[in-house]
Amino acid sequence: MFKDPFDIDNYAQDPDHYLAVPFVPTEEDTVAAMLALAGVGPKDRLYDLGCGDGRIVIAAARDRDAHGIGVDIDPMRIADAMEYAGWAGVEHMVDFIEEDLFSVDVREATVVSLYLLQSINVELRPRLLSQLKPGARIVSHAFDMGDWPADEKIRVADGYIYKWTVPAPVAGRWDWTRADGTTCRLELEQTYQQVTGRTWLGEIEARLVAAELTGERLEIELQADDATPVQRFILTFADGALKSVIEA
Q1: Are 163 and 38 in contact (CB under 8 A)?
Q2: Is 189's pLDDT higher than 90?
Q3: Cβ-Cβ contacts under 8 Å for 45 (sequence gap 6 or more)
Q4: pTM to 2 decimal places
């Protein structure tokens, strides 16, 4: 009988299922820290890839009123997770799917949690970037995403937790007109959330002093020359288009 949800032996797995990552339970304090770092709340749908016994999904429902989906290829872990959800009283808020984490559709997720390996994270990275909406958060226990730098990183008792916010695609040319009739133009290049490029204020090429991309929101600072003040703009992107510009 499933007595204590945090006292599960790492018993032998079904030999018909190859596990790319061995099951290693996440400590309760680390689970809480992951959910806090991701800012999980009632409006979120969390997907835990390689969910094991489901403790991250269940904690998100129990402690933060979020809905969640756990994904694991091992039917024994799925059975444990479903039993634990009933024990915790959150079975109406969570679901568990027996599926390969490399094929599961995560487009509905606002948060994805991981405790895998760096090589697996890197292999998942293109899928996460293509399927998740800009602004979705990814949190990983212990392992990073290779050359995709984390937005935040915190120390916990058994290592680090990393957080990324999925960036909107902003590379390309963007034009808008200010209230005084001056045209502005950006020609941007992008590597994950890191943005560089050239800018123009009217006919004058300006210097891109700073650019910070968080989800759909790009904050930039432009300066025409050293004698003029820095000008700040907040651009919002959606569905591959520039939706709004605010002059801050």
Answers
A1: yes
A2: yes
A3: 66, 67, 68, 69, 108, 109, 110, 111
A4: 0.90
